[in-house]
Specification:
Blueprint (H helix, E strand, L loop, with lengths): L1 E4 L4 H4 L4 E7 L4 H16 L4 E7 L4 H6 L7 E6 L2 E7 L4 H8 L3
Parallel strand pairs: 1-3, 2-3
Antiparallel strand pairs: 2-4, 4-5
Length: 102
């Protein structure tokens, strides 16, 4: 299951454990193409990593906080702290390696 994050619930829902956050927009074609990959990762890593999405248009404060310059952008958050981030469409295997490298 993919969790929807926004300015209100972000800190609470990323405060413990590992979260892979997808910063996206509804109008972004590459972002839409990532959806089935993210669904697959959420199922495969459900006991290790929470997969979450932030709509950059709805949550501009989070976008600014994480320095989103291009989308899709993926941020790896561990216990509320940014570990690393990458931008652009990625293969499933690349995102799994990114998400499990903490």
């Amino acid at each position: 299951m993919i969790v929807k994050l926004n300015d209100t619930n972000f800190d609470k829902l990323t405060s413990s454990g590992v979260t892979l956050v997808d910063f996206y927009a509804d109008w972004c074609g590459p972002c839409k193409r990532m959806n089935p990959i993210l669904d697959s990762i959420a199922a495969k890593l459900k006991d290790q990593v929470t997969v979450a999405k932030v709509n950059v248009d709805s949550s501009p404060n989070l976008s600014a906080k994480f320095g989103v310059r291009g989308i899709p952008m993926f941020a790896l958050i561990k216990d509320g702290k940014l570990v690393k981030k990458i931008t652009g469409s990625k293969a499933e295997s690349e995102l799994i390696n990114f998400a499990t490298s903490t």
